C-alpha cells in the first residue's frame, strides 16, 4: 500500500499546504507534458502480488514480521494486516522470454520463501480472499505495525465519521460493521504494471477499462468472506466498501468513492490526476521539501511526491502511476483488478491475457470503447465480479454473451495478436493463453473450484462451515504448491 511515512498527526494547516503543493505538482506535470519530458522507450512491465499466511489448519497466521525476517529478501514486504505479505517482482521488457523469466523468478522466490516461512510455522498462500478469515481477525490490533497503515486507518475513519458498513448480497448475504479498515486486508491481489508513453496512456487505459468485465469474470478467485458464499470475486465489493470515506449521506449525494472504476473514457493522463485533485481530499497530507517547479527550472526531474502520495490513496481499478527511474520520468498503468493466485502459472496466464489484450485493443483504428459506453463497461465489471466465469457480458457487435464464450471466440485471438506485437516468444504465448482457453472450456477458475470443493465437504457432512472451509483451504494450498493450473485440480 505504498511507501511508509513519518509518525505524526495532521493539522488543518497541513492539509491546506498539501493542497497548494499538489496544485504545484499538477502544474509541473502539465509543463513536463508540454515540454515532452516523459521517457518514451520500449515499455517495462512488472508485478506486485499479495499473499496470506496460514497455519496448519488453514487459519490466518499473524506472523508477517517473523516470516519476513526469516525470508530476508527485500522483494518481500509487509502489507496491511499481520497475515499479509507482498512481493514486488523486478520489471522486465515484455519481449522474447520475459514471461517465462517472470514465471521462473516468481516460482524460485516463492519456493524459497515458502520453505523459510514453514520453518517459522505458517504457509504462504495465493488467494483473492482467504476463506478462513473471520470477523475475529478484523480488529485494529491485526494491522501491521507500519506507520502508514495506522495513519491511513485513522484518517479514513476520521473522514468518514462513523464505522464502516460492509454489505454484500450474492449467493448468500453479509452485513456487518467495522471500526477500522482492517476488512480491506482480506483482499489480496495481483497488480500488473505496464509502462507506456504519455501519448499512448489514454488508449491503453481505455483498453484496460473495456476488458475489466471479462478479465475479472475469467480470473475470479474470491467466492467466500466470513464464511459466506457471496460474489465470485467478492474482493471487488469488499475493497470498495472497506476503505470508503463517505457517510451514507455523501454516498446518496453522489460523492465519488475512493475505490473507483471512473466515469468516462480518457483523453489525457492529465485528466486522471486532475480528477484526483478535484474530487478527493488528502488522506495523508505529508509534505515533501522539494519544489517541483524550481526543479524543472533547473533542468531536473521532480519527484512529484505529493501527486504520487495522493494518487496512492485513490484506488482506481486501473490507476495512473508517475515515477522516476535513473533520473527520467515515466508513466505506468497499474491494473488492480486481478485476485492473487491460484498458482504461479495461473497468475502468469492472467497476466499474458491482460498484456496481450490491451496491446491489441490499443492499436485499433476504431477502438472498442468508441462502440461501448463507459456505463456498459462498468456494468460488465460488476457482473463479472458478481457472477464470475458464468456471467453474461455485453460486447459491441455481439450483444450479451457468456464470459467464457466471449473470451474463447473474440478476446483470446486478440490476446494472441497482442502478445505477438509485444514480441513474446510464441511457445510462452501458446502455453499461457492455453491455460485461459482450458479454464473457459472447463468453466473452472479459482472461484468455481473453491465453491465446488466447499460444497462437497460441507453439504450433508455434519462439518461446521468453518471446518469445511479449513479443509478446502488446506487442499488449495497443496494444489497451489504443485503449480498445476486450477482447471486441472480435482474436486473430489
Automatic annotation (TrEMBL):
InterPro entries linked: GCL_type2/YbdK_subfam, GCS2, Gln_synth/guanido_kin_cat_dom, UCP012666
Catalytic reactions of this protein: L-cysteine + L-glutamate + ATP = gamma-L-glutamyl-L-cysteine + ADP + phosphate + H(+)
Designated name of the protein: Gamma-glutamyl:cysteine ligase YbdK, ATP-grasp superfamily
Gene3D superfamilies referenced in this protein's UniProt entry, alphabetically: 3.30.590.20
Organism: Actinopolymorpha rutila
GO MF, one example: ligase activity, forming carbon-nitrogen bonds
Top-rank taxon: Bacteria
